[in-house]
Amino acid sequence: MKFIKTPLNTSKEFSYKTKGVMLMSTFDFERINTDLSFLCAPEQKGRLSGTIGAKNVALYLANSLKQMGFQPIGGEGYFEKVHVPAARLVNKASLKIGQWNLLHRIEYGEITTYGGGKAEGELLVVKNNQDLNEEELKGKIVLILLKTDDFNLNETVKYAKSLGVSAVLIDGGEPRWFHKSVMGNYETLNSFIPVLRIRSSLLPELIRLSGSIVTFNLPIEISSKECQNVMGYYPGESESTETIALVSHYDFLGDDPGGHRFEGAGDNAAGVATILEVSRQIASLPHKLPFNLLTVFTTGEESDLWGEKHLISNPPFPLSKTIYLDGLGRTPYYSLNVSYHWEDKNIINSLMSISRDMGVSIKVNESKAKGLFNFLITGTSTVKFRPYHTPDDTYELTHVNVLQEVANLLVELLMIIK
User: Fold this and answer.
1) Whole-angstrom distance, CA of residue 377 vs CA of residue 369
2) What does the alpha-carbon distance between residue 114 and residue 186 come to, in Å, rounded to a whole number?
3) What share of the chain is helix, strand, coil (3-state, %, to 5)?
4) pLDDT attached to residue 253
5) What's the rounded Cα separation, in Å, for the pair 369 and 247?
6) Strand order in the sheet with 361-366
7) Mean pLDDT score of the chain, rounded to an integer?
């Protein structure tokens, strides 16, 4: 495997001056790389919450925290149970129109919030303002060819279901990939029927095939499974009363059964690997920090931040500040988006000063930072390369040097927090 990176040594020394003592710390490039490689490996099968792959990663993270000297919390050791609802594709998806087998993720993609299932019916093309009676629609697979500015997909799908339509096909544009999601909705599921996005360039052929038999199978299971947040505690000085949490989600979307791999390198194996390295550096210091450190790897982020919500509503102890990492390493540029809602802006000023010394570009936005965290750091993407929730988000294309630089920035920041 090769890595796209700017020239760096495999390790790099950074110095910190605190309490009048100069400390030296070595950031191990290969160690960050090893963590990232494990998280993205085929054996983890895309780290979908509630699967064996995600559990393998949770064990790896717990063992890593133990080796660093972080303490377990509570009766579950390093684990905290979290029930995670999600729409999980449990078998291979298929769509056939006439004699044409369409390619999943390339020529079509599902919208999981409308559920899944299997059906067979005649393809019916529906245009704007076309009058159709219930008998013409019942049992059909309907392609909605045109949409008005006030088109409401939810209401359209509900109405189609009430008329006996089996499934809806819509214009999905021309993406490189149809993005994957595991978002599901228990409460509204019975109000909907399956919805598939079709590549725009294929619509003329579908119009020609109007009246052909359509068969599809979307084996989506919408259920809640017991999963785990992973957390470890590193005590500060004996009088420390404040606790700072470093947080990153380790779950992703899961590989498509019998189909494409979803490694989730930038989302969010890179964030996890970076926080592992920061935690190692803090644990290796010859003195304690003036605050306690809680390292947390959350589950269920991809299906609506379930692990993050659980942490914030059920913290093991009061959290003074939380720092969240996501979406790093997709480009070679040291450009970070920082969102925060701290009343005290001194720490943001310190961060910006550190970043200037390191040559890191930072965009600061005063916001709710995912609505949960004080401080959110994400990487940037180029207009031409947006691999979110696609098979393009790979280990091989990750700029590992960026993770090394962000780890350095965070350690520098933690060293100056009072």
Assistant:
1) 9
2) 10
3) 30, 30, 40
4) 98
5) 13
6) 79-89, 220-234, 292-298, 243-249, 321-326, 375-379, 335-340, 361-366
7) 85
